[in-house]
Amino acid sequence: MYPANFDYQKASSVAEALAVMAANPDVKVIAGGHSLLPAMKLRLAQPPALLDVWGIEELKGIRREGDWFVVGAMTTHADVLRSELPLFPEVAYEVGDPMVRNRGTIGGSLAHADPSADYPAAALALGAEFVIRGPEGERTVPAGEMFLGMFESAVQPGELLTHVRIPATVQASAYEKFKHPASHYAIVGVAVIRDANGQIRAAYTGAGEKAERLHRLEERLNSGQPVGTGLVESATLLGDRFASPEYRAHLVDVLAERAAARV
Amino acid sequence: MNVTVTVNGKAYTRDVEPRTLLVQFLREDLGLTGTHVGCDTSQCGACTVHLNGDAVKSCTVLAVQADGMSVTTIEGMGTPADLHPLQAGFWEKHGLQCGFCTPGMIMSAAELLKHNPDPSEEEIRHHLEGNYCRCTGYHNIVLAVRQAAGALRAAALAEQAADD
Ligand SMILES: Cc1cc2nc3c(=O)[nH]c(=O)nc-3n(C[C@H](O)[C@H](O)[C@H](O)COP(=O)(O)OP(=O)(O)OC[C@H]3O[C@@H](n4cnc5c(N)ncnc54)[C@H](O)[C@@H]3O)c2cc1C
Ligand code: FES
Ligand code: FES
After folding, report:
1. CATH of the domain at B89
2. What is the pLDDT of residue A1?
3. Is there an atom of ligand 1 within 6 Å of A161 CB?
4. Do A184 and B45 touch (CB under 8 A)?
5. Which of A78, B108, B142, B163 would be A101's cystine partner, CB 3.0–4.6 Å?
6. Where does the record place the FAD-binding PCMH-type domain (chain A) (predicted)?
7. CA-based torsion, A45, A58, A137, A106: positive or negative
8. Mutate which of B36, B51, B62 to test chain A, going by most A C-beta atoms within 10 A?
9. A185 close to ligand 1 (CB < 6 Angstrom)
């Protein structure tokens, strides 16, 4: 129940946070703490020092920049849920429960790259971009290069994900999720969008080691074919005591059918 | 580390280890044992309190993160002589058996009623997804929240009439 002990400090600006991380490579960023603290309580993680970035004002809130929304990494799931963003509010409504949504952040979820997290599917389908700052300055990573593996995103040690850029105009979007009944994480989640030019883009999460685009679904829908089955090979998926790879592959087909019917 | 947290309207300063969870701070440092711990995995919601007005799981917030903030616990909702409408609703509708989940249920439901004074059964069930009850089967909990919502709406109307 108790996490192991650690040092703790708060940062009040991105510059200060980056300086602290540069001076102490062992320091771990804490945002909403809703992935990190559960892991620390079970002692699956034992960081020697935490740097609390929750209070950094420049990382909060959502603004419009031309064709994009720019979302601060510390924007909570609850604020995403109440926002004008495409697709993300519907996805946020499915994240955890109201208490999780009041603390957890969009940046924390996307930097963490939990294979069962919901947002990665939405980010891939929408073609979001990630603004990351580190000792060498700022870079922007496209969604396709963000999720590298299980709990592995493009955000490197010493770096901070500062903003998520989300295309502002899509014609339609839908997210369908089969959730674990106790944890509420996605056993499988499928996001489908129709972009400003009428093209379908889709992605799934929960089923494999990381969220992936659903290219087969995109090809079929963009050439006027039905959704069909066999959208992903079960050999590429995860199996555990909750769902076998075959069952997850089946869920991808079923959820894709439901989401596609709504766009 | 020194932290100052305003709990149910009163400011408390204590010296805590950074690893102290807010729920431990409330229960062990302040002796406010109405907030319960039902799990190790941040799932059950028995520890729900309001932090700066938002419902949070106090087992998944560090006391040091709550420094300078205000907390409301079940002890701040009502007294035995003057129950909060949610407390009265749970009593009258038999919304509890062992009562272990009840403080968290009430704090979570209170946040729902703040934003949605007349929630449907479905909205209540979705909102309480992070609060587990191992006894009641939830049916009477939903009835209790609906009764409290009605009582709070009636009280708001009466207040409005008194103002006019
Ligand atoms: C009971 C429960 C149910 C949940 N259900 C779901 C669910 O259904 N779907 C879902 O998607 N998620 C779910 N979650 C996880 C939740 O969404 C977390 O909020 C989210 O995964 C992490 O965000 P955070 O702000 O809490 O990050 P933290 O826990 O603070 O951080 C997570 C990791 O990311 C790093 N990090 C955080 N922010 C940054 C940043 N800006 N830059 C660089 N690194 C950073 C941290 O160092 C840490 O390694 C659930 C959590 C709980 C406790
Ligand atoms: S004690 Fe179970 S969620 Fe906090
Ligand atoms: S009344 Fe016993 S757990 Fe809910």
Report:
1. 1.10.150.120
2. 59
3. yes
4. no
5. A78
6. 1-171
7. positive
8. B62
9. yes
- The CATH number linked to B10 is 3.10.20.30
- Interface of chain B toward chain A, CB-CB under 8 angstroms: 1, 17-19, 21, 24, 37, 40-43, 45, 48, 51, 54-57, 59-62, 64-65, 108, 111-112, 127, 129-131
pTM above 0.95, yes or no: yes
Find the CATH number of the domain harbouring A16: 3.30.43.10
Closest to A244 in 3D by CA, of A199, A167, A169, A188: A188
| Residues of A in Cβ contact (< 8 Å) with B1 | 8
Nearest atom in ligand 1 to A97's CA: 3
Inside any domain, residue A2: no
Backbone CA torsion sign across B39, B42, B48, B49: positive
pLDDT in tens, chain B (164 residues): 999 999 999 999 999 999 999 999 999 999 999 999 999 999 999 999 999 999 999 999 999 999 999 999 999 999 999 999 999 999 999 999 999 999 999 999 999 999 999 999 999 999 999 999 999 999 999 999 999 999 999 999 998 888 87
Domain match, A90 and A48 both: no
Mutation target to probe the B interface, by most B beta carbons within 10 A, among A74, A76, A97 is A97
How many angstroms separate the CA atoms of B86 and B102, rounded?
A: 10
Domain count, chain B: 2
Using CA coordinates, name the residue in chain A closest to B127. A98
Question: Can you tell me the distance from the alpha carbon of B96 to that of B135, in angstroms, rounded to the nearest whole number?
Answer: 7
In the numeric block, the tokens 């300063």 are attached to: B13
Domain boundary among A167, A187, A213: A167
Among A167, A201, A230, give the residue marking a domain's end: A167
Dihedral over alpha carbons A45, A51, A56, A59 (to 10 degrees): -40
Q: How close, in Å, is residue B149 to chain A by CA atoms?
A: 18
Domain containing B96: what range?
85-163
- Strand-pair category, B54-57 with B48-51: antiparallel
